[in-house]
Design brief:
22% strand; mainly beta; 10-stranded mixed sheet
């Protein structure tokens, strides 16, 4: 039960704290996530803000400090954005995130707990440091022909209408790449995604490492061998004929495969 409740039925400020130091300090000793101060806009049809932090100088409008394992700030929304940052300044960012811990912990951690989109940027993104991706290849989504199998690792070729389907011919110069995501390798970058396109689409590995289906019935595959499409649907084979391989090479084998069909890592390099 609240020890102090201040309510106003008008548009007046419920609490106005003015000081040469902190205007308002709220502290909680709760072991749970009970907030020391809670800003709630209770009118479901209104547009009022639960908490407004405003400054006319160089100080921060709101400062959230978390000690030990506590959170410096917690924002939650059921229907709209939990946190909105806006600035009309021509020189300052709407939101600035700094990490002063020398241990190398991320300054900003964004996670979508249901594997949805964790972050969306509309506009340009500038990065002055390295960009690291846990995935191994650069892929692009392509439309897959209706009813055509497109399992990860399958070698795909372009049909007359531009859609992809598994290869069925040796040294096919219409080869487009390998369906990404086989084995334990996942794409680091996937380009060309279009949520509005309802046709079947799959990411095709164009550059980097990926696992590929191969068939050694046309010749044992050694590490470093060039690979091309084969007559075995969706499988690559050793490109033993240089004259026929030009324009039909998928990449290089990164592991040997002596007999039968299987899945091996390859370095994608279309040529």
């Amino acid at each position: 039960m609240a020890k102090l409740t201040i309510r106003t039925d008008t548009q007046e400020i419920a609490i106005n704290a003015v000081s040469d130091g902190p205007g308002l300090v709220a502290e909680t000793s709760s072991a749970a996530m009970d907030p020391a101060i809670s800003g709630v806009a209770s009118n479901p049809g209104g547009g009022g803000a639960g908490l407004i932090g405003q400054t006319f100088g160089s100080g921060a409008g709101v400062v959230g400090l978390g000690n030990d394992r506590g959170l410096g700030g917690f924002f939650q929304s059921v229907t709209r954005g939990a946190l909105v940052c806006e600035t009309r300044s021509a020189v300052e960012a709407a939101a600035a995130v700094f990490q002063k811990n020398p241990a190398g912990v991320s300054a900003l951690h964004v996670e979508h707990i249901t594997d949805g989109t964790a972050a969306f940027f509309k506009g340009n993104v500038i990065v002055t440091g390295d960009v690291s991706f846990p995935g191994a290849d650069c892929a692009e989504e392509f439309v897959i022909a209706d009813a055509a199998p497109a399992e990860p690792g399958s070698v795909m070729v372009m049909a007359a209408d531009g859609r992809l389907l598994p290869c069925t011919e040796a040294y096919d110069r219409a080869v487009a790449g390998v369906v990404a995501g086989a084995g334990d390798l996942r794409p680091g970058i996937v380009m060309g995604r279009d949520p509005a396109d309802t046709r079947r689409r799959s990411p095709i590995a164009l550059v980097g490492r990926t696992f590929c289906k191969v068939d050694a019935a046309y010749g044992a595959i050694a590490t470093g061998d060039l690979l091309t499409s084969s007559a075995t649907p969706g499988h690559a084979m050793k490109a033993a004929d240089p004259a026929r391989a030009f324009g039909a090479v998928i990449g290089k084998a990164m592991a040997p495969h002596a007999a039968g069909t299987g899945l091996i890592p390859i370095l994608v390099a279309l040529q």
